[in-house]
Write a structure and sequence with these properties.
The complex is a heterodimer of chains A (about 110) and B (about 110). Chain A is mainly beta and about 110 residues long. Helix content of chain A is about 0%, strand content about 60%. In chain A, strands 2, 4, 5, 9, 10 and 11 form a six-stranded mixed sheet that branches. A five-stranded antiparallel sheet of chain A has the order 1-3-8-7-6, with no helix packed on it. The radius of gyration of chain A is 13 Å and the shape is globular. The chains are: A mainly beta (about 110), B mainly beta (about 110). Chains A and B meet through β4, β5, β9 and β10 of A and β4, β5, β9 and β10 of B.
Chain lengths: ~110, ~110
Amino acid sequence: KQEVTQIPAALSVPEGENLVLNCSFTDSAIYNLQWFRQDPGKGLTSLLLIQSSQREQTSGRLNASLDKSSGRSTLYIAASQPGDSATYLCAVVNQAGTALIFGKGTTLSVSS
Amino acid sequence: KAGVTQTPRYLIKTRGQQVTLSCSPISGHRSVSWYQQTPGQGLQFLFEYFSETQRNKGNFPGRFSGRQFSNSRSEMNVSTLELGDSALYLCASSRGTESSYEQYFGPGTRLTVT
């Protein structure tokens, strides 16, 4: 059974710092991995999608990497801003299905 | 391009009642998935519909059901509500084909069962 773990559960950093969020999964037979952002009480915003054949994706200050063999992904946020404060969720789609399997998320707080 | 919309945004129901939630996907998307989010369990997959057929199902009791219409809009029904059904219910749409499983989420319906 696929399990997704995100470490740390919470993170507080000062504005301007570069940071890394970690995601690990137990079954490397994934179809893709998607990173989301969720603001309190709101829906999910898709940040980056990495197909299983890809190693990384970039969007603005965000860079996500994928290492299928070790079952790990990282989300790198450069020059963090208070507006980046949110919960970041990692999710995988198994090759056997179409459902997203989520980690519990990392709650990020960026102080000015 | 309009995003995923969900109605209603908030609901308060009593134990034992039933409820129907609605989701309209992004135009051109044929797949709609439903997820339940609670503080304790996080985000859990309920089911996915593609071209009016249930294609995938999570591990939830039969009280949770859904359907999809020919215009890809989807509804989710929960019968005989329990206190533990209080949650944020999120719907996501995608093109649903192997080349594009990227999912886009709506704002959610906050269900409170009293």
